Amino acid sequence: MAGALGLHVITTQLPVAFISATKQTFRRASVIRCAANTPNKRYTIAVLPGDGVGKEVVPVAVDALRLAGSLEGLDLRFEELLIGGVALELVGVPLPEETLRKAKQSDAVLLGAVGWHVLIIVDLYLTDASLFITVGNLIFFELWDVSQLVDSTYLRKDTAEGVDIMIIRELTGGIYNAHPRGFTTNEQGDEVGFCTESYSASEVDHIARVAFDIAKQRRSKLCSVDKATILEGSMLWRKRVTAMALEYPEVEVSHLLIDTAAMDLVRYPRQFDTILTGVMFGDILSDLAAMIPGSVGLLPSAALGDSEPGIFEPVHGSAPKHYGKDTVNPLAALLSAAMLFRYGLKEENAAQRIEKAVSDVLDRGFRTRDIHTPGTTLVGCKRMGEEILRSLDARVSVSNGSLV
């Protein structure tokens, strides 16, 4: 299962118009009790709310990270930065140099969403991708045990129950990033768009080793997804993964074609534990997996590099039609923040605090619009965040500050 973060954003060196527009959004939750006498670890978190509902879910994650961190004695400093449509409107570029510089100097990056209906989506996608490529080079999607949400699943309840999947997606190679690509005209005068699907041995080896190591920490099952029947890049992918499997005899390895994997993900998802795949197939499978619990608003992600800070982001995007209605589900942002604790800061206890709070709130029957079912309590984004904080605070023992 994944978790969330709670943080207080410090707006520094930002245009006055942006500070005014976001002043109410990043409200501070009440008094926060600290379980430790003195903070003993200090971290800087770059906070990029971005566009649309990113500005609604990030404050919820900020509050939770601050509280969970405080309870673990962590000294967290947060710096809000511009990205996406709001950056384009205020400073003329979707990814300002200051944002990139400060993000790279931070210990971790919390990203809301990039993309806005009045802007050119391709430019914003490239902005999002360039941040990932510069700061991280692989991405995780974590679909935790969804048994509490079987009533909202798009599958049969008995199919969705007990599903717990980690999808590891290569981020910087493959068809999204390889060259040549572009537009031309063929001999018949027709316009042609083209791009290249390719992977190098080193690219595959890099992410495969990460996947094997993670699989060892989970249930020692790894499924590699490709299209090796047709694509040369996939043929090399399967060859390299098969070779690396000899170094991990304790991990059970299987290979599936992307079409079969998509079918099995909805037919029998419990067979999967850790899925390894390339940039395009991972893009498809992660959204498909989000329908197992019934909403993309439940899927967190972590983009990690070798040395740069990780980027932690809910996968639902900016969702302009939902912005400002207090209906969006903040759990993906919360669970992304828990991944920030676990994979970005290596603070496992803080990550578990968030995860336990999310489980507790779901156990108490609170649901946002996207996962609401008869018999549960319908709440908005802000109320869900308040319940998460209440659960976090309730889990502190008055005597010693430990989880109860």
TrEMBL record:
SMART domains: Iso_dh. Its cofactor is Mn(2+); Mg(2+). Residues 44-388 form the Isopropylmalate dehydrogenase-like domain. Its EC number is 1.1.1.85. InterPro entries: IsoPropMal-DH-like_dom, Isopropylmalate_DH. GO terms for biological process: L-leucine biosynthetic process. It is an enzyme of class 1 (oxidoreductase). Pfam families: Iso_dh. GO terms for molecular function: 3-isopropylmalate dehydrogenase activity; metal ion binding. Keywords: Amino-acid biosynthesis, Branched-chain amino acid biosynthesis, Leucine biosynthesis, Magnesium, Manganese, Metal-binding, NAD, Oxidoreductase. It comes from the Eukaryota. Belongs to the isocitrate and isopropylmalate dehydrogenases family. Homodimer. This is 3-isopropylmalate dehydrogenase. It comes from Brassica oleracea var. oleracea.
